[in-house]
TrEMBL record:
InterPro entries: RepC_C (IPR021760), RepC_N (IPR005090), WH_DNA-bd_sf (IPR036390). It comes from Paracoccus angustae. Residues 307-406 form the Plasmid replication protein C C-terminal domain. Transmembrane segments: none annotated. Residues 25-166 form the Plasmid replication protein C N-terminal domain. Residues 258-291 are annotated as: Disordered. It holds the Pfam family RP-C. Signal peptide: none annotated. This is Replication initiation protein RepC.
Amino acid sequence: MARTFTAKAHSHHDLPTYPILPFGWQRDAFIHLVERVAPHLGVGRAAAHTWTRLAAMTRPTDWVEPDREPSVYAAASELAKMLALSEARLRAHTARLEQAGLLERRTAANGSRSRQAGTGLFFSGVIDRFSDLLALDAQLTTARHKAIYLRGQRSTHWRCLRRALEQLRDVASQDARVQAMEDAWAAWPRADRLHAMTLDALAAHEREADTLTRAALDLLATLRKSVDQPLENERSHLQDTSEDFSLSCDARTEGRRFAVEPTLGHPSRPRRVSSTTDAEDRRKGGPNAAGREWLIKLGPERLFRLASPEMQFYLSGRADPERLRFHDFIWTAERRVLELSIHSSAWSDACTAMGEDGATVAMLILDARRDDPVAPIISPGGYLRGMTRAWLQGHLNMMGSLIGLSERRRREEAL
């Protein structure tokens, strides 16, 4: 909240006091704050740019000293020249800015401005609104992060649905249900159109996309069983006869044909794993084993039991543990990324390096270990980035971490 200090007596007169920016805030940081929220105050881009340039003409100390008031005294004609605007355009901008409460015009009877007369353009009013503007900025930031999360989940549904539809075409290309799903998928807005959608519309579309994806996975499982064919990557009946939950949702980008392939040579970039390394990792069962054989063997019920209570809450709302698919775990992991305030880039980097399957299991491990009695996780985002770096260096043993979680669950249940 803007603070006001009591002025000291000076030359037998009380000096006026003005609102100032809170401690730690300076003029330029406040200008950036106003720039971010201006469109949501009904101020157009051109008028907001004019405000920014006008505010930058003031002295920085005038925003933080209680006996000073940030202001611009230049005549309108001079300001118009300085801003490369016509006087009419400048008047229109300042009128809109005043209406939005971002500045105040004080003019003499003849319209002149001068420091001596105390006339000009003044910014005390907008400083006085600091708390409201800061709250609006926080609200917009939350909405922006929510939109990023929803677009990410839509992208996850897009990739998984594409894979499911490819397999459905192989099984029953003439089935009317498959064609209906193809048509519904084709009607989805393009990824670049998602940015123009309201938050409510985006949330509704994400729910529809999730519903269609799950319906396609269910139909695929039903049709595969009806023709007595195993699902792709289906577990052997010797291991588990429950429905397959590991339908591949590999890290592909919407609109692209091929999966993202890691590159070599930079520690912050995904590591290209050669076929030789791939085979060796498979043989050794190492932490970077390609494919998802070890995930398949775990099964959905085991992963569910190892998950945190928060993850289990979301997973339970989607299906019984034995009927969960890996798509449900990815959906839940992305929700926890948002709730744990993990930056979207950390999740994106993890998916690029480990694939969505690996990144999802990493999130499950991270989330379950947040309240570890011995070594709790203080910074989930930093921990996820550390896991990604360890994966790229070949040091991340997720199977070992899952075994550790399993042992911890056994100890807790024995108490």
